[in-house]
Amino acid sequence: MDVAIKCTHVSKNFREQQQALPEARWHQRAFPGFKTTKAVDDVNIEVGRGEIFGLLGANGSGKSTLIRVIATLLLPDSGEVTVLGDDVVKARLAVRRKINRVSVDAAFFKKLSAHENLLYAARLYSVPAGQARQKTADILRRLGFAPNKMYAPMENLSRGMQQKVAVARALLTSPVVLLLDEPTTGLDPKSKRDVQEFVAEVRQQHDTTIILTTHDMAEAERLCDRIAIIDNGKIRSCGTAAQLKAHAGGQAASMEDVFFALTGRDWEEVNSGEDA
Ligand SMILES: Nc1ncnc2c1ncn2[C@@H]1O[C@H](COP(=O)(O)OP(=O)(O)O)[C@@H](O)[C@H]1O
Ligand SMILES: [Mg+2]
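Above: inputs. Below: predicted complex with adenosine-5'-diphosphate.
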C-alpha cells in the first residue's frame, strides 16, 4: 500500500477547568480541579493513497479531534502525523496546501447565497472566475441542490443544504487529500445518498485520498474501503467491513455486532439522542 496519511502514537488531551466548588466548600480546596480528557489516545493508522478511509465512532469518541490534528488545526501532545510525507507540525504549510477539510460546523457568510459563498471560496483557491461559475453550478446540481435555492441567503437554508454547500466548497478544487468530518450527519436519506455518491465519484475521478468520519455504520460499510472503529480516543479495530466482522468473531453479522464485540457496549445506547 502506498501510504498517504500516517499517524504514529498520536495523542491529544484536553484539560478543562471543572466547575467551581460551592462557596461552602471553598476552604477544602483553594482552586477548582482540572479534568483531563484523553480525546485521542495513542492512535496508529495508515491510510493508503486513493483510499476512502472511515473513522467510525460515537459522539465524543475523538473523531473530530483526530481530523483537526491531521488538518494542522490542533497540535498533537505526542506522536507523529505525516500527510504524503510531510509532518503536520514541522511542515504545516505544506500539509495545508494538500488538504481540504469539511466539517459539520463550517462557517459561511450567512447573508450571502450558496453561489456567492462558493465563488468567494473559488477566488481564495485561485480558480478562474468563469470556471468557478460553471463548476459551482455543476457541483451544486450534482449534489441535488435545488437551483432556486442557489441564490437564496445561506441563513435561509436548512442545515442539510448548508452542509451540502460545505461539501461543494471542499470539492471546488481537486484536493489531494480530503478530510470529511461527518459530511452526511443531519441530512435526509436522499441528500445523504447524493453526498455519498459524489464522494465516491470524486475519489474515482481524482484519485483523492479521503478520511471520512461518521457515526452511520451503513455509510461506513457502503462507502469506505477500510474502517477504523474509534472509542474513547482509541482505535479498537481497523480493516475492511468483512475483516472487522471476522475479527469480532463468528457472531458478528452486522457492524453493530462488531462494535459490541469490541467495546462491550451497545451501539444504539452509545448513540442515543443522536440522529444516526
Ligand atoms: N476544545 C476542547 N476542549 C475540551 N474538550 C474537548 C475539546 N474538543 C473536544 N473535546 C472533548 O474531547 C472528546 C472527543 O471529542 P471530539 O473529537 O469532538 O469527538 P467526536 O468528533 O467523535 O464527536 C470529547 O470528550 C470532547 O468533549
Ligand atoms: Mg465530531
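The first helix runs from residue 63 to 70.
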